[in-house]
Design goal:
By secondary structure, this protein is an alpha+beta fold. The protein has seven helices and nine strands, in the order H-H-H-H-H-H-E-E-E-E-E-E-H-E-E-E. The protein has helices spanning 13-23, 29-41, 43-57, 70-81, 85-96, 98-108, 195-198, and strands spanning 126-131, 138-144, 149-156, 163-170, 178-182, 188-192, 205-212, 225-230, 232-233. The strands form two sheets. A five-stranded antiparallel beta sheet has the order 6-3-2-1-9. Strands 5-4-7-8 form a four-stranded antiparallel beta sheet. Helix 1 (13-23) crosses helix 3. The longest helix has 15 residues, at 43-57.
Length: 234
């Protein structure tokens, strides 16, 4: 159906439907988490998702942009996140602002970024370290611009009981983070980055949040922002 799917000689029609629903964020949190696990090891399935994402992306050109009133976001946030919204939004606003990026970059510059010896055998073009100030949580990441693959390793720390760590991408000038998926229980995993995002990693941040089992149910962080780190080109 799509050029991006040409590498998959055959595929399950049910998977085609699931890939489309995944691209449209129509799966339940449990179904989405299960599908993300399959994406790690199934290249043909990743091709299906990429094909659907490209297919749906063109429709956005037909819709004129309309700026919602400022009060709309506050009202939605209050309904989604409750009384803890203010402090959490402040953190994300700081991370998404120029001051936040500069401050985090300065902190990372105080130590030498260890070179990621990738267990999943990619040749990284970008690296990042996402760590708390006391280094009780350390996540290293490597991205290959050749394969659009991101490999993440949690080298220190673990999520609280009944919670998971979710990775996020914060693009320069963005107003909201983009979910990259969960860090597996085995502490390392591979994530396919869509082509439209892969070319925008320079001057961006990776961040990690504390989320319920299955990941954020809203598509945006619902738990505490644990750490963030700038992406460095090699």
């Amino acid at each position: 159906m799509f050029d991006a799917m040409s590498s998959a000689q055959t595929y399950n029609p049910d998977d085609d439907v699931l890939a489309a629903e995944y691209a449209l964020h129509l799966l339940s949190p449990t179904e989405r988490a299960s599908f993300k696990e399959r994406l790690r090891d199934d290249a043909a399935l990743r091709d299906l998702v990429r094909g659907w994402e490209e297919h749906f992306f063109v429709f956005s050109d037909e819709v004129a942009e309309v700026a919602p009133p400022k009060r709309a976001k506050s009202a939605i946030d209050r309904r989604l996140f409750g009384p803890e919204l203010t402090s959490r939004s402040t953190i994300w606003a700081w991370l998404l602002g120029t001051g936040g990026i500069a401050a985090v970059a300065f902190a990372v510059a105080l130590f030498v970024m260890p070179f990621l010896q990738d267990p999943l055998q990619i040749n990284p073009t970008h690296t990042a370290e996402v760590a708390t100030e006391d280094r009780s949580l350390v996540i290293v990441a490597a991205f290959s611009a050749v394969s659009n693959a991101l490999v993440v390793r949690r080298t220190q720390g673990s999520p609280a009981t009944g919670r998971v760590h979710e990775m996020w991408l914060i693009l320069e000038g963005a107003t909201a983070p983009i979910s990259l998926g969960l860090i597996p229980e085995g502490n390392e995993g591979r994530i396919a980055i869509p082509q439209e995002l892969a070319g925008r990693l320079t001057a961006a941040l990776f961040a990690v949040s504390d989320e319920p089992t299955g990941g954020s149910p809203t598509g945006q962080p619902t738990g505490a922002v644990l750490a963030a780190g700038p992406i460095q080109a090699l």
